[in-house]
Amino acid sequence: MVERWGLTLPLPGTSLADHRPFVQQAEAEGYTDLWTGETGGPDGFTPLALSAAWTEKIRLGTGIVGVFQRGPALLAQQAAALTDASKGRFVLGIGASSDRMVAGWNEIPFERPLSRVDKTVDFLRVALAGERTDTGFKLETAPAFPTPIVLAALRGKMLALAVDKADGAFTNFLPLGGLPQVTGQIQNAKPGFELLCRFFCLPGQREEVEPLARFMFSSYVTVPVYAEFFRWLGYGEEIAPMVAAWEEKDRQKAAELAPWELIEDTFLIGPWEAIRERLERYVAGGITLPVVTPIVTPDRMAEAISALAPRS
């Protein structure tokens, strides 16, 4: 069995105030990690701060927070605070985020993302060690525990940067058929290097989940950084009609043109046992930390956490 097993926070459709029983259930059922997303819902740090108080041993990671939306000094402060609050259970996952979120939502130029991530890692290594950075910043109190850094990395150059400077790489929206392309980029990673991947789990038969799956896939893979990721994986022809419809602002047509075989290879769909079998294939292919995201209503969340829990 894979050594680590993660759950995504925040849970869909669930208020942060109502997360405590689910977080404690996950720890009791053997999940080793909680990793936050950061899109249009809560920020990446707040759910982990709450979880640090609610749990005793589970690891807490941002998966991921963007380096454009926060300056490096603020990132160091937030990372140090959570490392302290969790008594060393925190992992800082950072990345460039996406052009849609950075430039579109936040009106921040999305320029030279690789360079920005590279410089941020260098800054954070110095700051989190309690030393003064080249900009003159120094934490008032350095963390008493080390803070590992994981990079969101989809394609070759960012994966290479993760291997060179980070403790792990976090990929996302990865078709099973594209997994060898990713793992081939990290063959020279140091021992203990982690490869994380978030998995969207949609329990149910095709007719039940297809509308939502098509909407999610077309919304995500038309984001330019993800479109480039799928082209890099070799799926350019498959996604081209969908991307063209999205660029013409025809969202419904884009969803209709989303290639179903590729959706099935990217999402985990079907009964729980089929979802588990798919997860095991990813683990066998090199994912060292699967991070599951159950797409269910709150009344089914406890069931989903149990169904997707790690097996001894």
Structure notes:
With 312 residues, this protein is of the alpha/beta class. It folds into 2 domains: 6-204 and 271-307, Luciferase-like domain (TIM Barrel, Alpha-Beta Barrel); 213-267, no CATH class. The protein has 14 helices and 10 strands. It has helices spanning 20-28, 46-54, 72-85, 99-105, 113-128, 156-165, 179-183, 206-221, 224-233, 236-247, 251-257, 260-266, 272-284, 301-307; strands at 6-9, 33-36, 59-62, 65-66, 90-95, 149-152, 168-172, 194-203, 268-270, 289-294. The chain has an 8-stranded parallel β-barrel with strand order 1-2-3-5-6-7-8-10, surrounded by 7 helices. Helix 9 (224-233) packs antiparallel against helix 10. The protein is globular.
In short:
The protein has 312 residues and is an alpha/beta fold.
Layout of helices and strands, plus pairs?
Elements lengths: L5 E4 L10 H9 L4 E4 L9 H9 L4 E4 L2 E2 L5 H14 L4 E6 L3 H7 L7 H16 L20 E4 L3 H10 L2 E5 L6 H5 L10 E10 L2 H16 L2 H10 L2 H12 L3 H7 L2 H7 L1 E3 L1 H13 L4 E6 L6 H7 L5
Parallel strand pairs: 1-2, 1-10, 2-3, 3-5, 4-5, 5-6, 6-7, 7-8, 8-9, 8-10
Helix pairs in contact: 3-5, 5-6, 8-11, 9-10, 10-11
What CATH architecture of the largest domain do you see? Alpha-Beta Barrel
Q: What's the overall average pLDDT, rounded?
A: 97
CATH topology of the largest domain: TIM Barrel
The strand count comes to 10
Per CATH, the class of the largest domain reads Alpha Beta
- Enumerate how many helices there are, as a single number: 14
Principal-axes geometry comes out as: globular
Number of domains: 2
Tell me the fraction of residues in β-strands, as a range: 15-25%
Helix/strand/pairing class, anyone?
Answer: alpha/beta
End-to-end CA span: 7 Å
Uncertain runs are: none
- Rg, alpha carbons: 19 Å
Q: In which range does the helix fraction lie?
A: 40-55%
Sheet of most strands: 8 strands, parallel, barrel
